[in-house]
User: Fold SWIM-type domain-containing protein from Urbifossiella limnaea.
Amino acid sequence: MTTLTPKPSFALITLLLPGPDRKRKPSPYHYRITYRNPDPSEPGCVMTWDVLGGREPYQIALERTDAGNTVWHCTCADAVFHGENDHAHHCKHVSGLRDTLPRAA
Ligand SMILES: [Zn+2]
Assistant:
């Protein structure tokens, strides 16, 4: 386990989500913003986060399409598995983050 030293300008969000163990005991997940587009209305990548606290670290990206819609991406198995067939499905990492960012979604 390495100690992360977030840069002062990068926000760190901590959310309580069902944990990675079988009991799904609520565990703290840490979201660290790794990229933020200065113009979020432009098509392309709006923001990216590192997610720590799960079984392994994940990356979440919020993308704006040319049509102006937003699409969420997460690298966890749940998102990869469901995302191919069901674009309305969001893994717990994305769902939790969306709740904290009502404007982005
Ligand atoms: Zn996920």
Remarks:
- Helices lie at 77-83, 92-100.
- The pocket of zinc ion is lined by residues 58, 74, 76, 78-79, 91, 93-94 (CB under 6 Å).
- The two ends are 33 Å apart (CA to CA).
